[in-house]
Amino acid sequence: MQFRQLEAFRAVMIHGSITKGAEAMGITQPAVTRLIGDLEAAVGFALFHRTASGVMPTPEAVTFREELERSFVGLDRLRQAAGEIRDLRRGHVRIAAMPAVAAVTAPSIVGRFKAGHPDIQVTLDVHTSPRLVDLVAAGRFDLGFAHLPRPRPDITVVASYRMACVVAMPPGHPLAGQPLVTPRDLAGVPMVALSHHTVTARHVDQMLLAADIVPDIRVECQPSYAACALVVGGVGISIVDPLTPTLYGPDRLVTRPFEPTVPFDFRVMRQAGDPPSKAAARFTDLAVSVLDGDPVLARQTGDH
After folding, report:
1. How far does CA 209 lie from the centroid of its chain?
2. Do residues 267 and 143 lie in contact, with contact meaning Cβ atoms separated by under 8 Å?
3. Cβ neighbours of residue 85 closer than 8 Å, sequence gap 6 or more
């Protein structure tokens, strides 16, 4: 049995004649007659009685059609599902982001995507960069936002961004009156440091070492929103990405530029190899568009 034969049989049953069935299928009457004959040969029994006024289904044909309709209901569902997938009305986009991006930038991207594609399911998970990169490389997520210090053959970088870290402090802090903060300004100032294994902490350590400043580290923590919470709690000031302090508002936390610049980089990445789904590709395009329009971020060239 072939699908076209079954389709011809069903069309004749629905429309009551070979002529109308042929019209519904957009083919000739002899073509439908041939398809019905081939199907009768395949099933081993007659499907229609030929009469002067046309054709009449046999009892076997009526029974056969009942079973056939169950299959066609499944096919109709498949067609519907295919249309929904094609038109981005069905699908699942899985995203992973480092904490700073997940807390500040990702929500606006997800919100805009859901506004245009409300039926697409979106999952947003938060991980540290090393863990996140491994998960993206393993295909657990369609898209990731994370640090990637070195190229990896199992990761495709879609875009790279850089921003300058800032010094976060309470509004009444003495350094809040300065237009910018330098390493020498940090001498003897209680500080909250990001964990030593983070990329930002390594940059800060190098800056302070070059200036011959020994920092007064009161607490070491991760991620940046934990550091900002400790700053709000009066533990010390902290050098963090410029995104996270915005969560607290200027009445609780203010920021000042730090010189020399401490870069905070992240990359938009996906698993190398197979192309993304239509939904994931659409989300990626939107994410890059939003990030490109953010005045805090600078798009980096030479993505690897």
Report:
1. 40
2. no
3. 91, 278
For the entire predicted model, the pTM comes to 0.72
pLDDT bin (cut points 50, 70, 90) of residue 215 is very high
223 alpha carbon, distance to own chain's centre: 22
Where b means 16+ CB within 10 Å and e means fewer, 19-31 reads ebbbebbebeeee
What distance in Å separates the CA atoms of residue 2 and residue 22, rounded to the nearest whole number? 17
Per-residue pLDDT tens for 272-300?
A: 988 899 999 999 999 999 999 999 999 99
Q: Which domains does the chain have, with CATH numbers?
A: 3-86 (1.10.10.10), 92-158+266-297 (3.40.190.10), 166-261 (3.40.190.10)
| C-alpha of 9 from chain center | 45
pLDDT > 90 fraction of the chain, expressed in percent and rounded? 72
Q: Which of 239, 240, 219, 241 is nearest to 230 (CA)?
A: 219
Q: What is the pLDDT of residues 98-127, one digit of tens each?
A: 999 999 999 999 999 999 999 999 999 999
Q: What is the DSSP letter of 197?
A: T
Give 3-state DSSP helix, strand, coil % of the chain, rounded to 5: 45, 25, 30
My answer on whether omega of the bond before 260 falls inside 30° of 0, hence cis, is: yes
